[in-house]
Design brief:
alpha+beta, seven-stranded mixed β-sheet, SucB, globular, Chloramphenicol Acetyltransferase, OB fold (Dihydrolipoamide Acetyltransferase, E2P), transferase, acyltransferase, single chain, four-stranded antiparallel β-sheet
Length: 405
């Protein structure tokens, strides 16, 4: 039985996609649900699995090709024909070289060429991709780590079917490299530029004394994890505080559509997550009805899917408000950029002990700066400042989250 391998059905908002890499080559045996090829859109990387056990017989669109929804990518065979093909493909040949390691076999041709030009074997490079797959960045790191007594030769330009040529120039140890943006990175750049140019963005700041929240977490985290099978973190409490505040300030939870302002009766909060391919924002839906355990489980699930590259379109679509936490990378203060068409985004930052005045006395407290960037076309300054102050008050007195006061 022959089967066609097609590009997944893309949403209406996504015109086309790019073939990232094939994990198999023609003649390779394939198990059912094993990933055959990865397709990158401007939002997420999609995996195309094998529909059954068989053999990949043909690849029609190589890595780098631009494809559209339901386009034919290749073909595979199943059943007796597949078994014969697999047997023939695995039969030893006198002139055949030893099989390459799995990580090297799954490496894109351009990356293998770069390795060869720098005299690197798969064992010399630590792969950071899925299943140990070697990426361009891994080769670059291995080249940089090579002893200076043996400077690497300048890699030759690498071309693909749809991407501009990769031009690399080196002079001694001073290396430069020009590579095309991935679709996801290009989309991020486009959206950020659009947000800066098409909105009246302002940012307001405040600071939060994290001691009450830290004390509460330390007191109940073990019981919470034992009962709910989820760790109690700070993000869930900020999400809950944001959902409560969004219901009090509907303009923060609104968006502009043409000449209309759309007020959303639900709080779908996006949590900015860093992945190998860039920043993605999966959505927690109806957070106004979620408990802390549900929020923690949702965040953990999305983080795992982001690491494994398994986020899909539904995970990333929609959202009425966004929270980003630069504090996990050590950021003390920043101005987050809006995620259009949302009207606001909350930025969390690192917690640092600082001297503050409490009851006319100077004490040391764990403090966090928070920032709210907002679209001044929808949100007035008073509403933005009061919203952020509400977040501060709820976090500094977390009992209010439980009592909803």
């Amino acid at each position: 039985m022959s089967s066609e391998i097609l590009t997944p059905v893309l949403p209406e908002s996504v015109a086309d996609a790019t073939v990232v890499a094939w994990s198999k080559k023609p003649g390779d045996a394939v198990k059912q649900d094993e990933v055959l090829v990865e397709i990158e859109t401007d939002k997420v990387v999609l995996e195309v699995p094998a529909p059954f056990d068989g053999v990949l017989t043909e690849i029609l669109e190589d890595a780098g090709a631009t494809v559209t929804s339901s386009q034919l990518l290749g073909r595979m065979e199943a059943g007796a024909v597949a078994a014969k093909l697999a047997e023939a493909a695995s039969a030893p040949k006198a002139e055949e070289a030893p099989a390459a390691p799995v990580a090297e076999a799954q490496t894109a041709p351009a990356v293998r060429k770069m390795m060869a030009e720098n005299d690197l074997a798969a064992a010399d490079v630590q792969g950071s991709g899925k299943q140990g797959r070697i990426l361009k960045e891994d080769v670059q790191a291995a080249v940089a780590a090579k002893p200076e007594s043996k400077p690497a030769a300048a890699p030759a330009p690498v071309a693909s079917a749809s991407a501009p040529k990769m031009e690399v120039a080196a002079s001694g140890s001073r290396m430069e490299q020009r590579v095309p943006m991935t679709r996801l990175r290009a989309r991020i750049a486009e959206r950020l530029l659009h947000a800066k140019s098409s909105t009246a963005m302002l940012t307001t700041f405040n600071e939060i004394d994290m001691k009450p929240l830290m004390d509460l977490r330390n007191q109940y985290k073990d019981q919470f994890e034992k009962k709910h099978k989820a760790k109690l973190g700070f993000m869930s409490l900020f999400v809950k505080a944001a959902a409560t505040a969004l219901q009090r300030f509907p303009e923060i939870n609104a968006s502009i559509d043409g000449n209309d302002i759309v007020y959303h009766g639900y709080c779908d909060i996006g949590i900015a997550v860093s992945s190998d391919r860039g920043l993605v924002v999966p959505i927690l839906r109806n957070t106004e009805n979620m408990g802390l355990a549900d929020i923690e489980s949702g965040i953990a699930g999305y983080a795992a899917k982001a690491r494994e590259g398994k986020l899909d379109m539904n995970d990333l679509s929609g959202g009425t408000f966004t929270i980003t936490n630069g504090g996990v990378f050590g950021s003390l203060l920043s101005t987050p950029i809006l995620n259009p068409p949302q009207s606001a985004i909350l930025g969390m930052h690192s917690i640092q002990k600082r001297p503050v005045v409490v009851n006319d006395e100077i004490v040391i407290r764990p403090m966090m700066y928070v920032a709210l960037s907002y679209d001044h076309r929808i949100v007035d300054g008073q509403g933005a400042v009061t919203f952020l102050k509400t977040i501060k008050e709820l976090v500094e007195n977390p009992v209010r989250l439980v009592l909803d006061v």
